Amino acid sequence: MTAIDFLRHGRTVAEGRLLGRTDAPLADAGLAAVTAQIAGRSWDAIVASPLARAQQTAALAAQVSGLAVKSDPAWREIDFGEWDGQALADLANDARFAAFQADPEINAPPGGESLLDVRRRVQTALRDLISTGQNGVLVAAHGGTIRMALSVLLAIPLQRLWAIRLSHATRVSVRIGWTDAHGLWGELIEIVQPPDEGKAREGKA
User: Fold this and answer.
1) Are 149 and 9 in contact (CB under 8 A)?
2) C-alpha 28: how far from chain center
3) Are 137 and 129 within 8 A, CB to CB?
4) How many helices (H) and strands (E) does the chain have?
5) For labelling, which of 6, 43, 138, 196 has a CA lying 20 to 30 Å from the CA of 69?
6) What does the angle CA 100 – CA 193 – CA 105 come to, to the nearest 5 degrees?
7) What's the CA gap between 205 and 199, in Å, rounded?
8) What is the spatial distance between Cα 157 and Cα 167, in angstroms, rounded to a whole number?
9) What is the spatial distance between Cα 118 and Cα 73, in angstroms, rounded to a whole number?
């Protein structure tokens, strides 16, 4: 078994926009929320999406743990294609966006990445984490890829992906393993939402 803490990056300066591959640095509130979330915790390894908002989040944990951060592109946020970087308020009137939220398995973002492709890369990343033999790993990533990891590990249908609330700077602790008979499996230990972040309106990136 491998113990993993997934940590969603903190709030960015581009609040209210759909951030996939579009990048933005953390806001001061995001830095503070991440700092509070990692206080008193330590890990054997830190892995992060290469996007700047996840790298900043991981760097704060690295300072506390004295570890180097390993970048893994498999943990990048979903590529939202034409929607990437757009204001969520504008997307609210796009029927294609509503269809994507209702059934993302069959409605890929226009010009973007299908959820089945996201699932495949996240499955590979989870297998890689198990193969290291390290038992305490922090993965600094995004709402989409963390939700996808939980979908894979807990057999949550893709249609229910957005039902998992993950505020910015949320920590999700799991134990994962692999058997030839059942493949990847996981056990959810806890979800810790930062109190201040949970009150705010947020996107899914």
Assistant:
1) no
2) 20
3) yes
4) 6, 6
5) 196
6) 15
7) 17
8) 20
9) 11
Write down the residue that tokens 């600094």 correspond to: 140
Dist. CA 9–CA 30, nearest whole Å: 8
Residue found under tokens 């089945």: 116
Identify the CATH class of 2-194: alpha beta
Note the pLDDT tens digit of each residue in 95-153: 999 999 999 989 999 999 999 999 999 999 999 999 988 889 999 999 999 999 999 99
Task: Report how far apart, in Å, the C-alpha atoms of 32 and of each of 36, 38, 39, 116 are.
Answer: 6, 10, 11, 34
* Entry pTM: 0.92
Question: Is residue 10 a contact partner of residue 29, using CB atoms and an 8 Å limit?
Answer: yes
What's the pLDDT tens digit per position in 145-202? Answer: 999 999 999 999 998 988 999 999 999 999 999 988 888 999 999 999 987 654 444 4
Angle at 95 between CA 94 and CA 97, to 5 degrees: 70
Residue identified by tokens 């990847």 is 184
Q: Which residues contact 194 (CB under 8 A, 6 or more apart)?
A: 33, 36, 37, 167, 168, 169, 170
